[in-house]
Amino acid sequence: MKKAILFAALLTAACGRHEPARPKAEELPPLKVQTTEVVRKDWPSVYEATGTVRARVTSTLSARIMSYVQEVRVQAGDPVRQGQVLVVLDARDLDAGQRQAEAVLHEARSGVPEAENAVASAKAQLELAQVTFRRMEDLFQKKSISNQEFDEASARVRVARASYDMALARRAQLDAKIQQAEAAVRAASVNRDFAELRAPFAGVVIERKAEAGSVAAPGAPLLVIEQAGGYQLEAAIEESRIAAIRVGAPVTVVLDALEKPIETKVSEIVPALDPAARTFTAKIRLAPLPHLRSGLFGRARFTLGSQSALAVPAAAVRRQGQMESVWVVEGGRARHRLITAGAPHGEWVEVLSGLRGGERIIAPLPAEIADGRTVEAQ
Is pLDDT at 13 greater than 70 in this prediction? Predict the structure, then answer.
């Protein structure tokens, strides 16, 4: 019983102790702050369109022959240089075809000496027959030989000429065969080159669609490559803005992946409109920058004239999640005020609601600021 009474007494004593009460904001000494007036400014009328960063030049590598993929030498994300071998196909059939074409060419060329000798022999026979005929003709004029002998000499000339013409024709046929064999070798060499797929330009592999052992069919994509340093933002513009936005119009591009906005110009307007979304596409060329990749989300901001708007310094606005607020000076005290802020412009922020022109706000915001605290403007 005594222990219970002692425990109750201790509990009562403990409950009776309180932490020192913190002073309220109204009881704190005045806080020296800097204030500024909510002013009305000529605010630029900005139209914002969303878009996606894409490469200006994209190439899809595909096979031109039916074969098995022997080796894929790159992965998605790998940089490549122009002319680099990226995919190797099974080329055993092509190698055999090239060797066969080279063998036919070698065989045709080996017949050249024999054909030239045949031409030289036929030419010599023709020249001999012509000399003999001239002699026989002279004797025939002198009545020294018979008509039979003269006719035989004339016939030998015709036979020799025919043999010579035939040798020349065979030599020409051999030349044609050699040219045909050379063309076959070149064609086989070109087909052999199809077994190696090379990068058409310096860039980055963005997609790999083939693995070793798979079948490469003509036209089937194996790799997708983007040209390095060539990116643009493709923004969807409402059709009502088609008269206001032209090629060469200045535009500010904001990408979440980059720290600073990009000042550039519209490089191309796609003439066809999307009938479903009722938009047209503006292509905005981007300068080569680190971390710039296709697929990034971006905003294109076009300045279309100006309008009067309330504005406050950006240093006066505090953002907490989705809420934006300022501190207004009312009766010598700081009052927390929620506002709806618009687009920033330089060091100022447009105010859509929550403030009136001429009100005094605190900027910059001191860390000790609190709702209801007495403030002293410097």
Answer: no
